[in-house]
Amino acid sequence: MSVGMSRFDILEGLRDRFQNSRLADVVSGMWLGRAPDDTQPPYIVMSNVSGGPPREGMNGRKLQTLAVEITIYSVERGLEEILHLFDLQCDVFDDYQYEVKDGAVIMVQRGGDMLEELGEDEGNGWLCRVEYTVLADNLVRTQAD
Asked: Of 12, 43, 83, 102, which one has the greatest count of Cβ atoms within 10 A?
């Protein structure tokens, strides 16, 4: 019997990392996919943009690569808040490696990032999209292990 991680497990692992950070102290929360309509900014949404099925790696390990987008929403008109939140997010996720469960390891590397000004119908303010490549190294175990 093999033991692995689903995409949801990987995203939950990233959210766990967030919840134990200074960033979690200054935003109203992080949601997977979409924040509730009544969410007060600043807040964060994390999405799995793409990724394939696990593939066999060396020594009986399964590897899975996901593209994850983390978006910070702020209604402050100036750049100070969104840039501060971006810096905190980088502290949490950039080049981070950690064990999630059952010996599986997640490695996170930042790709690109983009600031975008929001219009009046979106509440003014800013959003910052950051793309991460997430490599999940999942051990494959047998029932005898």
From this structure: 43
Higher confidence at residue 3 or residue 116?
116
What residues does 64 pair with on adjacent strands?
A: 136
Res 84: pLDDT: 94
Strand spans (E) along 39-123: 43-51, 55-56, 61-74, 96-99, 105-117
| Average pLDDT score, the chain | 83
Domain boundaries, the chain: 7-139
Give, in words, the CATH class of 7-139: alpha beta
Element spanning 88, H or E: helix 80-93
Q: Are 130 and 86 in contact (CB under 8 A)?
A: yes
Given a cut of 70, whether residue 126 has pLDDT beyond it is yes
pTM of the model: 0.81
In 13-60 the beta strands, taken as DSSP E runs, fall at 30-32, 43-51, 55-56
Report the distance separating Cα 17 and Cα 132, nearest Å: 14
Q: What is the CA radius of gyration of the chain?
A: 17
Q: What is the pLDDT of residue 30?
A: 95
